[in-house]
Amino acid sequence: MSKPKIVILGAGYGGLITSKSLEKLLKSGEADVTLINKHDYHYLTTQLHKTGVGTAADRQIALSIPELINSNKTQFLKASVSSVDIKSQVVHLEGGDTVNYDYLLIALGFEVETFGIPGIKENALEIRSFRSSKAIYHHIIKQFNLYKEDQDPSRLTFVVAGGGFTGIEMLGELADGLPKLCKEHDIPFEKIRIVAIEAAPSVIPFFPKQSIQYTMNVLEKRNIELITGTKILECTPEKVVLENNIEVPTRSLIWSCGVKGNTIVHKWGLPIVKGKIAVDSYLRVKNMNNVFSIGDCSLFLKDEKNALAPTAQVALQQAPLCAKNIVSSIRGESLKAFEYHHKGSVASIGLMAAVGKVGNFRLSGLFGAFMKQVIEARYLFNLGGPSLIIKQHVGVSREPV
Ligand code: FAD
Ligand code: NAD
């Protein structure tokens, strides 16, 4: 009998950690594992805001996948998935190649949600992937150069849409990184405007009052202009249009108003609920025994009505269990139900401040920032041991790339 073929789509947090777990769980020769990803690097999505402002070197954020996996146990394929034929168990890749599977994991992550607001898709910048974040960095430099030609103040106005965690992390990074970028490109920093726009009455509206107040104070101290309780209605190449007839002239709208599951999966005949792949308690796609899905592209209900949030924390907890359940399926053993344990959330506001909550304990300030670094380092440690942490950080300061 031929060996079962396990194919993993996406090498983000969910897909990569599942493949690493399979390397440990599978006996020699028990199954073939193929990991397919668009790029040959795994990017740290949780730190993409740094790439956007150039406060981290590329090699700290984008890690070579072949160096992270055991090539004797996992075959890596750099390719873009175009579709999956569930009936015939075939993955179709851009360019026409195909890959057969017996067991499939779909971990294709998220897309940015624009809510159909006019001009966002065409004109706004996204913190979605390493490439899209790098594009923000290049856009900033381009605006600096153009400002030198036309002195148009809108080129030095950077607007962040959405005051959720992604938004405040981006704002903190802009406040940290722009002074240095200005110096390097001979731009007067006092002419820079950083504007935050949030539809809800405050930033991080889902957090305790004290944390909200702390965050608003940090942002204000860093001269970030806060416009809350105001929705963005439209974006053109030259301005952002808000409710109440407010317009902000800008060439740089960084859109961080939420995410949705990767829409590429919608046409594959899978059960799609709220735009995501509905999975059962074992992380299998509903009513399928050999197709699994985890992370941001999947919908896991924690109770009758509510789904788990699209976070790295969820994907990272799902991945090892998903690997176990794939192996159990191959071996004909019983599967284990996924149980999520929320360990807390911490969001950076630049390098020296953060806001978070672990259990009932509120984190802020330098201690919060330190905890955020610990969380990121822990992920690298789990991925590649102490050598990966050293390799990533030794000799690298927060220099622009
Ligand atoms: P992803 O990490 O999005 O990985 C998907 C992978 O699939 C990518 O490698 C992508 O290239 C690949 N892919 C996509 N389409 C294709 C295709 N067609 N073919 C081949 N490959 C494809 N969560 C937290 O818990 N803590 C945090 O601190 C945190 N910080 C964040 C900061 C920012 C700026 C952002 C944007 C998000 C943050 N999140 C955080 C959320 C977290 O990053 C996501 O929930 C997490 O990345 C989801 O992991 P995933 O494996 O499902 O998808
Ligand atoms: P989000 O949905 O959490 O926040 C989006 C914000 O945008 C909301 O506050 C919303 O009110 C606002 N908004 C929506 N439409 C708007 C409009 N038209 N005009 C103005 N404001 C508008 O999205 P996110 O911050 O991108 O986070 C996505 C996911 O990633 C979440 O699950 C989050 O927890 C996770 N994440 C976690 C961390 C962390 O733990 N450090 C960091 C970043 C993201």
From TrEMBL:
<feature type="domain" description="FAD/NAD(P)-binding">
    <location>
        <begin position="5"/>
        <end position="318"/>
    </location>
</feature>
<dbReference type="InterPro" id="IPR051169">
    <property type="entry name" value="NADH-Q_oxidoreductase"/>
</dbReference>
<dbReference type="InterPro" id="IPR036188">
    <property type="entry name" value="FAD/NAD-bd_sf"/>
</dbReference>
<dbReference type="Pfam" id="PF07992">
    <property type="entry name" value="Pyr_redox_2"/>
</dbReference>
<keyword id="KW-0274">FAD</keyword>
<keyword id="KW-0560">Oxidoreductase</keyword>
<comment type="similarity">
    <text>Belongs to the NADH dehydrogenase family.</text>
</comment>
<dbReference type="InterPro" id="IPR023753">
    <property type="entry name" value="FAD/NAD-binding_dom"/>
</dbReference>
<protein>
    <submittedName>
        <fullName>NADH dehydrogenase-like protein</fullName>
        <ecNumber>1.6.99.-</ecNumber>
    </submittedName>
</protein>
<dbReference type="GO" id="GO:0016491">
    <property type="term" value="F:oxidoreductase activity"/>
</dbReference>
<keyword id="KW-0285">Flavoprotein</keyword>
